[in-house]
Amino acid sequence: MAWGLRIHYALTLLLALPAAGLLIRTFIIQHDCGHGSFLRSRRANDLIGSLCGVLTLTPYRYWRKNHAIHHATASRLERRGTGDIWTLTVAEYRACTRWQRFVYRLYRHPIVLFILGPVLLLVVLHRFPSKQPFRWNRDRASIVWTNLGLVGVYALLCWLLGWQTFLMVQLPIVFLSASIGTWLFYVQHQFEGTYWAPNARWDYEAAALRGASYYKLPRVLQWFSGNIGFHHIHHLSHRIPNYNLQRCHDENPMFQEGCILTLRSSFRTIPLKLWDEDRERLVDMRQARAAR
Where do the structural domains in the chain lie, given as residue ranges? Predict the structure, then answer.
């Protein structure tokens, strides 16, 4: 990409697409290391995951803890809010003030949700601990070490390439990978017939097979996304590494059912913003008003 600047910036931007794809694939490796599934050795998983975290701007151990909470609370109505997309029920939205409704609708706007928000999360929020009381541990230390690694790597690249060249190369990669990564996570849980239930009726198997989608992508995009489209299988058993998900899907007919999203049909999920507890499905604002 830096070499492409000698010809035209358009070439650099064009190369940003596969570069962002490779960064997403790197994140999937980090993701599997966090689940202890990429390699047999826990120490090797932690080492590779930590190194990947510097490339993906995501503190490995700190993210791993929050992602574990996501797996434990996925599709539980009473335990929303950690590692997932902010989702209100229709009743909760009606009980909000005008300001709260404005903030929620702004958050769920595609520009904020898929462009501005992901970059803010990746570049700024991942550099600091959450708003929970500070307590030094290995999870918090991973934030500090990742930040130090970023300073070292970025300083070296600025020295080798020049800071202008570095920014012209790095910023498109960060924007694209953050947006695409957020989109992948969004469509894997935010679709019309997804599954949410109160704790009393929550079922682990239903949360995995009905609360997560099978995102059927073209082979090249499936490779760049590290088979994460088989998300229903991943939530049923997170110890299956990404390189075995296709085989698991092909050998078990039960995984070939449920919600199947294609690249085209997945864009229909964008207007969905509220969970209708009566109809047990995600609805858009127009449907929520009609239900009222």
Answer: 3-193+273-291
